[in-house]
């Protein structure tokens, strides 16, 4: 399927090729004129933000996606923020703490985090990949990714 995407990009006009974003740094965001865009998330590096925890971010004007990569036995510290968050576990599992309640969640599980509610995660013997969606985009997140110079591998 990746080969099909590559051919589709090569068979398009120069204007249409602009829709296929070739990420040049750690952050992908909508263009000023807000044209439609396609990206392949595998082309972005994983920014290591704490021991065993890496992130990839994609930013729109009113929302953002964060791909969260957690190796076994790693911790995303308890925190809160004013933005809404909805997450989906894509692979693996982790113990998610939401407003003081801990639950082991896995592939296909969704969590909803209202603004200001404390939450965090901890992996055990398995790694975890989750997709978090924030509205509006989290303040300081883009800057954190841009300032991170360590890259993480995730197998």
Automatic annotation (TrEMBL):
Residues 67-134 form the Cupin type-2 domain. PANTHER family: H2HPP ISOMERASE (PTHR40112). This is Cupin domain-containing protein. Gene3D superfamilies: Jelly Rolls. Pfam families: Cupin_2 (PF07883). Coiled coil: none annotated. Residues 1-21 are annotated as: Disordered.
């Amino acid at each position: 399927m990746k080969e099909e995407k590559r051919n589709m990009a090569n068979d398009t006009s120069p204007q249409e090729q602009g829709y296929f974003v070739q990420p040049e740094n750690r952050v992908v965001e909508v263009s000023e004129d807000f044209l439609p865009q396609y990206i392949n998330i595998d082309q972005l590096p994983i920014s290591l933000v704490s021991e065993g925890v890496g992130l990839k971010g994609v930013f729109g004007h009113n929302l953002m996606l964060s791909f969260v990569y957690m190796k076994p036995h790693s911790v995303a510290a308890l925190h809160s923020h004013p933005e809404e968050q909805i997450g989906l576990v894509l692979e693996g599992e982790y113990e998610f703490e939401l407003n003081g309640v801990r639950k082991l969640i896995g592939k296909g599980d969704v969590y909803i985090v209202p603004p200001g509610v404390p939450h965090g995660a901890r992996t055990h013997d398995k790694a975890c990949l989750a997709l978090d969606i924030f509205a509006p985009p989290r303040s300081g997140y883009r800057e954190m990714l841009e300032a991170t110079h360590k890259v993480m591998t995730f197998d």
